[in-house]
Amino acid sequence: MEIVKTKITDVFFDLDHTLWDFEKNSALAFETIFKKHQINLNVEEFLSHYVPINLRYWEMYRSEQITQTQLRYGRLKDAFDLMSFEIDDERILFLSDQYVYYLPKYNHLLEGTIEILEYLKPKYKLHIITNGFAEIQNNKLNNANINQYFQTITNSEMAGVKKPNPLIFQHALDLAQAQKGNSIMIGDCIEADIYGALRSGFDAVLFNENHLIVDENIKQIHHLLELKKYL
Length: 231
Known about the structure:
Elements: E1 10-13, H1 22-36, H2 43-62, H3 68-82, H4 89-102, H5 113-120, E2 125-130, H6 134-143, E3 152-155, H7 156-159, H8 166-176, E4 183-187, H9 190-199, E5 203-207, E6 220-221
Parallel strand pairs: 1-2, 1-4, 2-3, 4-5, 5-6
């Protein structure tokens, strides 16, 4: 399960939940729009419903079961329904747009992000592969001031497919002018990031911050700085 460090030239990162603290920034975005638009709900209680719903909707979006519009509307609609909060579709769509607008304005990173990027940058070419939407992901990178670490950014919109589809990994390789045998993927999603990368010929390390039980053959870390033992 060791990685041959001298063999690796290109390190590909997922963004949300791996470097960019999605849950913290998302909570702040909801606090802002609920206050601004007088949505009289307890944000913590709302998030207790919304977070698992959002994960489920992203799974459906990754597997092409729903569209971007259905993702953005459905996750809010379902969360409001669970709280028995009466709100019409027009307002849900408005709040969805507001959430997408405010989300990248917050820039909290997961612990160790800057330190590990500083450590890796002199040794490897660094890249992003994300299923997120292009404009939003670029805003996140710019606002968090980490865009300068990455030579290329591949998103699902430009690739035309989403992780774990091998075509997005090939698109990222082509953009980076990298070889799969010299590349490694770091991400938090076992299916999209890890199995997607492994099936595409990459090496891979799972960022398993929540200590989920996974196959013992999967390389994993629980803190970003643990990457130093692999790279």
